[in-house]
Amino acid sequence: MTSQATQSRPIPLLWRVFIANVAVFVIALLLLTFSPIEVSFPIKFSQFLLLLAGFVVLTAMNLYLLRRVLSPLSTLTAVMSSVDPDTPGLRLSAVDSRSAEGEALVHAFNGMLDRLESARHEAARTALHAQEAERLRVAQELHDEIGQTLTAVTIKAERAADGDAGAAADALRQVADAVRESLDEVRRIARELRPEALDDLGLVNALIALCNRMSSADGPLIKRELQATLPPLPEEVELVLYRVAQESITNAIRHSNADTISLSLEGDTDFVTLRVRDDGDGMPRQLPSGTSGISGMRERALLVGGRFSIESVPTRGTEVRLMIPLEGERT
């Protein structure tokens, strides 16, 4: 069993090339030793032609041997180029690597495909879950807030139509107030779906508006440290920064029991960095099932080539950090 395992072990590529070259040198040595070739000085033209022919033959033989040695790498490259990410499941299995390096490359490439497909499936599941959760949230808010308000408006309008003039005036004023509240709710839902302040005011002012909107008398104090002048940022980078800040502040308000939340944003010619810190309880060691906020922030960061990290210390708070390279740095 040991001898069979030793024989089947691939030979390193270095030794395969070395053996091929040694074979050519041995043939040349044998030809020079046992052939009746004589070279005089000055060399004759016929002798030069004979040496040239031997050189061409040895070079062709060396090329043939090296091509056989390196042919599995060409086949491996062709198979790697044929792998399509949209067609999962394809692996390098029928490739004759012939060398330890080739075999290691096959295993590494297959492992990379496994990790990429796993990450892609997980990202797709996370995106689908986040999308459905957002749709469910909007549907519930439309049903609970807008639906109930409009139902009440309908009832009041019907009563006003059947009542006297004085009661009708009061009912119509109540209807107007209810419609105004419904419009405010629609605007709030629309802002959460797409932050209009980001389009109208820019990233810094949109973050200021976000902090003002999420502040409350009985909630934590939200501090801002926003760099007034940022380098030009692509639209998708601004949106990712805004959404990560929004999700981080929301999580801190809901779960951290913090007294203070700090939001900072700074940038230079290479990177733009967002930090959200709180002085709350810190994150639990085991997150509850069904939480997609952190994975959603991480996926958003990956979309723009950013580095997302969370540092949490029990009873000392949590810091969310997002660092995004700017266009010149990414290229």
Textual characterization of the structure:
It is a single chain. 64% of the residues lie in helices and 11% in strands. It is α+β, with helices and mostly antiparallel strands and 331 residues long. It has a 5-stranded mixed β-sheet. The two termini are 53 Å apart. The model is unreliable at 1-7 (pLDDT under 50).
Summarize the structure.
The chain is of the alpha+beta class. It contains ten helices and five strands; from the N terminus they run αααααααβαββαββα. The model is unreliable at 1-7 (pLDDT under 50).
Structural Rg: 36 Å
Using DSSP, what is the number of strands?
Answer: 5
- What general form does the structure show? elongated
Average pLDDT confidence is 77
* String of helices and strands: HHHHHHHEHEEHEEH
Low-confidence stretches: 1-7
Main β-sheet description: 5 strands, mixed
Q: N-to-C terminal Cα separation, in Å?
A: 53 Å
Task: Report the oligomer.
Answer: single chain
For the largest beta sheet, what order do the strands appear in spatially? 1-2-3-5-4
Overall structural class, as computed from helix and strand content, comes to: alpha+beta
Q: In percent terms, what proportion of residues is strand?
A: 5-15%
Approximate helicity band: 55-70%
Total number of helical segments? Answer: 10
